[in-house]
Sequence to fold (388 residues):
Amino acid sequence: MITIVPTPLGNLEDITIRALKALRGCDLVLCEDTRRTAKLMARYAIAKKLFRYNEHDERSLAEAAGFLRAGRNVALVSDGGMPCISDPGRKLVALARAEGIPVLVLPGPSAVVTAAAGSGFPSDSFVFLGFLPRARGKIVKALKKAFELEKTVILYESPFRIKKFMELVCAEFGPDTNAVIARELTKVYEEWLTGTAAEIRDKLAAVKEVKGEIAVLLRPASFKDEAERRERGASAAVMFVCTGNTCRSVMAQYYAAKAASNLELDLKFTSCGLAAQGAAVIPAPVKIMLKKESVPDFEHVPVQIAAKLVEEADLILAMTHAHKAAILEKFPAAFDKTHTLAEYAGFGNGDVSDPCGREEVVYSETFRMIKKAVAVVLDKMKSKIDNR
Fold:
């Protein structure tokens, strides 16, 4: 029989009791690298014959198959983690299954699962791509197909190519793509880098040499957690955020509500400010421009941002990057659903400037940008609703 034995990613104390029993009870161990496995065996005083198993060498596969056909009790390990998951072993397991040889799989360490759990990204379901092809065109094609599922994407990357890969992500999928890099998991130099693709790219650029094994997690800025929204049984709720909640976010909220109504979209729009004062007056140009768009008369009292408002929103659209940073500093759990209005609309990294207290032409220019961005937001929301 063959027993698939997961081994520690780095910290040798992560071995399971069942894994140790399997290694002590087997006849021989098939290894990715006998030197790495020898260190683990020595740590737990286990003496067994170690054979190198090379997935891409037909002679190595034939030798391993011979052990199984001879009735030997074989343990299969990789350098760390779960064999067969972006590690050697699949061909031998497939052969054993085809020939009716018993296969026993033990649970244990896995880099992809460890990275998913520690990333903070939604991982009720995710897309794992393993190691991507080398060609740029194939990489872009694989990522585009994976992103179409609107799930967190996880992959492994070489330390020698990670800088170039993050540059590719920025160029092809936007510098605002949310990303996490988990390097050297469970080891002495374990490191987590979180932020946008551009932020991580710049952090890596400042390092002379990147070392170790790397897991990369990606979520485009436009993604949101649809599962949570469905669990609440409510229509999607969009919240616009500015400073005082008297100008930009108010124009966005009431214009979006009117435009969504015209499109018969079941969406809820709210707004708030990072430094809102309930007694503040809505500037006359705001109501004048909204009235020209046939927005019904309204009385708006500025609302201060709060945890409950953030929790209830499915999508949070800030007017500037400074607003976004302030929101995430106070409410880090809102990372996946918080964006600037411009970046979510695909307008790049620009901010929606504050017209408060300035000439009416400035209000008009700000409102023009908000209208264009809101149109794209509604189109995205409609597409998601239609594709459910």
User: Anything to note?
Assistant: Confidence is low (pLDDT under 50) at residues 226-234. The chain has 15 helices and 14 strands.
